[in-house]
Amino acid sequence: MKRAWIVAAVLLGGCSAFGSKVDLSEPAVVAASTDVVEIQRVPFKIGVSSTTVEQLARAQACASEQGAGLVTEPGPIEVYRMQCQDGKVFMARCELRQCRKM
Q1: Is 42 within the bounds of a domain?
Q2: What is the pTM of this model?
Q3: How would you list the strands of the sheet with 69-70, edge to edge?
């Protein structure tokens, strides 16, 4: 929507710069973007550091019934995600089982 206002302002401003008159009796037609972004859902997987991430989340006042799920592939560097009961999302990055809040 913001882009549409900028385009309209540039078009109307450009017309007045050359001394031509703009007919304001009819509304200007501006093309708007209708891009739709699809949300990718990741299946819940438990990783080797899920318990550690859950402890970190509890220290940050984040409680969850489901727990921390592995978002990336298992390996030396892993990312975990945990949905808190209050709606917030807690994420942590673990490198060789040493985890930190993101």
Answers
A1: no
A2: 0.61
A3: 69-70, 77-83, 89-95, 98-101
